Amino acid sequence: MAFVLSALSTIGWTAGLVFGIFSLACGLYVTSEWVEEYPRQARKAIQLSTWAIDALLLLALLDGTSIWRTLATLATNHVYMQNLTNFPLVNLSGPVFLGSCILAVGNHFLWFFYFIKRPGILFGEVCAFMFFCVWLVPLALFVSLTPVDAALPSSKEAGTKRVRQNIFKTMFSKFVRSEEQPQLLHNE
Question: I need a surface site. Which of 43, 67, 120, 139 has the fewest CB within 10 A?
């Protein structure tokens, strides 16, 4: 009986993980569609969330968080804001975008090592801080990436007009078959 319950538990956790990841992917896709549809509102939402996170970081100083880590995160957030100058178009090979990527990874490890040295802080508190203060703005920028379709290898020329397409659409279009009309066979 213990083997059956253990197997069911393993199957349940595996199915829950798969459905959770699938739900997250669907949510990110829907969010990226919304950002593509309403880029002006998305830009304002990212700016407001960055300012709110800056305020949260300053409040976290009252709890005794590291001053220099907080200042580094504030500076990192404002480098992220530089990506909003030509929003929603982002130069994926530009120095601002590449610097943002490097700073996102560095900021993560900066806070990761800070919390590793403080075992008294609850795991849920660490996860909440990392999500809101470290990952939220880079995740919002990642979801809102809209490359110029004409610059991609899979581009389809639309005359002289540049076509904007969501990065998720671009990535997943290779996996999803387009609906083609069946070709009729002609006997010669």
Answer: 120
Annotate 107-149 with DSSP letters as a single string: HHHHHHHHHHT-TTS-HHHHHHHIIIIIIHHHHHHHHT---BG
pLDDT tens by residue, 128-174: 999 999 998 888 888 877 654 444 454 454 455 555 555 556 555 65
Q: Cβ distance 174 to 153 under 8 Å?
A: no
Q: Which two tokens stand for residue 187?
A: 């006997």
Beta bridge partner(s), residue 161:
158
**Cα dihedral value 145, 148, 153, 154, nearest 10:** 90
To the nearest 10°, report the CA torsion of 28, 29, 31, 32.
110
pTM (predicted TM-score): 0.66
